[in-house]
Amino acid sequence: MIILENLQKRYGTREALAGVSLHVRPGELFAYLGPNGAGKSTTIRILSGLARASGGKARLSGFDIESEPLAAKRQCGLVVQHVNVDNDLSLAENLDIHGRLFGMGAADRRQRAETLLATVDLADRRDQRVGTLSGGMKRRLMIARALMHRPRILFLDEPTAGLDAEVRRRLWGLIKTIQAEGTTIFLTTHYIEEAEFLANRVAFLDAGRLRALDTPHALMARIGEWALDRIVEGGIETEYFPDHDSARQAVARQTGSVNLRRVNLEDAFLRMTGKGVTP
Ligand SMILES: Nc1ncnc2c1ncn2[C@@H]1O[C@H](COP(=O)(O)OP(=O)(O)OP(=O)(O)O)[C@@H](O)[C@H]1O
Questions:
Q1: What is the architecture, at CATH level 2, of domain 2-75+151-213?
Q2: Cα of 40 to ligand 1 centre, how many Å?
């Protein structure tokens, strides 16, 4: 469904993507994680036709982004990081303009907008000015707009950035619903627990290179099952254990204050990239 083969991007001498290869399966929810500047947005910009690769190949539903750019573009819907809906128009008008850009007929546009506004739970606001919506509602509207032309792939570039926990969880439900309807989803996020909760598979990107790619469960299992945090000078030191017994024995040997807990995806990320993720 999404195929990247040795995808590269250089800005002058800066290598934003140093040859990334991966396959995203049809209907999969794929999370692309990395610290600031890893190359996540650059990948999405190239795949959605907003930037050109410096090398390598990419296909969306079988269409080559370089030699069949229009067909490739029709396969994907894009929700960018910053809010870019038109505040002066109504919700329905924002969706309608997008449908026109993709050559949809008037009746189809109307019908599709109704369906999508219901999906994102904004049907009762269809004729309101977008400027009156909250940040979370605007994000939902952006998702509806990206789906207007019935793309098979949805790119979500940090869809929940800056939203509070409750609003984020509501969006997670919406993202799951869209996947259940058959759309392939490629998501970037700074919130690792978001990827752990939502994604079928996760890729760790760092400095333009893939460090790991697997299911959240398999990535976590690579480093162990239990984690022991110890406060040390200058931060927290974490040790990983394959089972509870060995972790408990280690706790018994400690003198200071410690915290024993289950391994999470952030542990795997820190271990494999040597870096944290700063929202
Ligand atoms: N238009 C540009 N001109 C020059 N350098 C750029 C440009 N866009 C991105 N870069 C550089 O390419 C690298 C990858 O940037 P990108 O925005 O893809 O990272 P990211 O993983 O999305 O980061 P963030 O999490 O901060 O959004 C960075 O070093 C960035 O400074």
A1: 3-Layer(aba) Sandwich (3.40)
A2: 8
Give the β-pairing of 184-189 and 235-241.
Answer: unpaired
| Cβ atoms of residues 263 and 225 within 8 Å | yes
Choose which residue among 7, 33, 36, 210 to substitute to test ligand 1 binding: the one with the highest number of ligand atoms within 8 A of its C-beta. 36
For atom 4 of ligand 1, the residue with the nearest CA is 11
Residue pair 160/195 in contact by the 8 Å Cβ criterion: no
Q: How far is the CA of 161 from the centre of ligand 1 (A)?
A: 17
CATH 3.40.50.300 in the chain is located at 2-75+151-213
* C-alpha 21 to ligand 1 mean position (Å): 18
39 lines ligand 1 (CB under 6 A): yes
* Other CB atoms within 10 Å distance of the CB of residue 67: 10
- What b-and-e string marks burial along 81-90, b requiring 16 or more CB atoms within 10 Å of the CB? eebebeeeeb
Find the helix or strand (DSSP H, E) in which 69 lies. Answer: helix 69-74
What's the 11 CA to ligand 1 centre distance in angstroms?
A: 9
Q: What is the dihedral of CA 261, 266, 269, 275, to 10 degrees?
A: -110
The interface pTM score, or ipTM, of the predicted complex is 0.95
Give tens-digit pLDDT for 117-171. Answer: 999 999 999 999 999 999 999 999 999 999 999 999 999 999 888 888 888 888 8
Look up the pTM and report it.
0.92
| Residue 175 CB-density burial (10 A; 0-12 exposed, 13-18 middle, 19+ buried) | buried
Among residues 192, 203, 211, 200, which one has the least CA distance to residue 175?
Answer: 200
